[in-house]
Design a protein that fits this description.
- This protein has 222 residues and is α/β, with parallel strands linked by helices.
- The protein has a single domain, classed as Rossmann fold, CATH 3.40.50.
- The protein has helices spanning 11-23, 35-50, 63-69, 82-89, 123-130, 146-150, 167-178, 194-198, 200-210, and strands spanning 2-6, 27-32, 58-62, 72-75, 98-101, 106-109, 112-115, 136-139, 158-164, 183-187.
- The strands form two sheets. An eight-stranded mixed β-sheet has the order 3-2-1-4-5-8-9-10, with helices on both faces. Strands 6-7 form a two-stranded antiparallel ribbon.
- Strand 1, helix 1 and strand 2 (27-32) form a beta-alpha-beta unit.
- The longest helix has 16 residues, at 35-50.
- The mean pLDDT is 96.
């Protein structure tokens, strides 16, 4: 399967790219508005993986070209760029493409981070609204520490919550998540539940801020 990470030069994109390239045989494509930046980062990911004995090719493209080649497109961009990014690649998506949205709207002040719910109800809903008709959107990977993901020496032992209205698309994303060692996907229901899932992220960040030794804290459910 081909997985494109649009905005794959950023923190969450880097973590997911490295983990999928390290733990699976899926083809990883790095997308960026700047194709040269995408190619440079793809080479850096290859070098990191090669240092760990993993011989894999990671390709970098402009976002549109990455989306055109992919089965699953991860919107690894800030929340305020989600709709614009989907619209910019819309003509490269078809009914077989699955969009994955891990972005969370947040605002920070002196006390910490707070959930900033967009008018669409959630960032996942924002992505789904911008997507062409027939393209399924799944919310996933919201509450993960990007630093912990990108550190291949770190064991995960974490859960990720999935929301979406297309059971088949959600099943595919669940299997992709499960293939990352130490990551357990859990079904959190339809896309209407995305706000509840996304709002956990600022809570996790605040816990990390106020508790020593919990910089890379995540969520598990028992």
């Amino acid at each position: 399967m081909r997985i494109a990470l649009l905005g794959g030069t950023g923190d969450i994109g880097q973590g997911l790219a490295l983990r999928w390239a390290y733990d699976t045989d899926h083809e990883i494509l790095i997308g960026s508005r700047d194709p040269e930046k995408a190619r440079t980062m793809a080479e850096e990911y290859e070098t990191e993986l090669d240092s760990r004995g993993v011989d894999v090719t990671v390709n970098g493209f402009a976002n549109e070209m990455a989306a055109d080649r992919a089965d699953v497109v991860v919107l690894a961009v800030p929340p305020y760029h989600v709709a614009d990014t989907v619209e910019s690649v819309a003509d490269k998506l078809d009914e077989d493409t699955i969009l994955v949205s891990p972005a969370v709207g947040m605002k920070g002040d002196e006390d910490g981070m707070h959930y900033h719910r967009p008018g669409a109800g959630s960032v996942t809903a924002l992505a789904a609204k911008a997507a062409p008709e027939g393209v399924s959107t799944v919310g996933a990977f919201h509450n993960l520490s990007a630093d912990r993901l990108a550190n291949l020496d770190a064991e995960l032992d974490l859960d990720t919550l999935l929301v979406g209205d297309d059971p088949d698309a959600k099943d595919i994303v669940s299997r992709l998540a499960n293939e990352i060692e130490g990551l357990r996907p859990l079904d959190a229901g339809p896309l209407a539940n995305a706000a509840e899932v996304e709002s956990i992220t600022p809570l996790v960040i605040n816990i990390a801020r106020y508790n020593d030794g919990m910089h890379d804290v995540g969520v598990t459910f028992h």
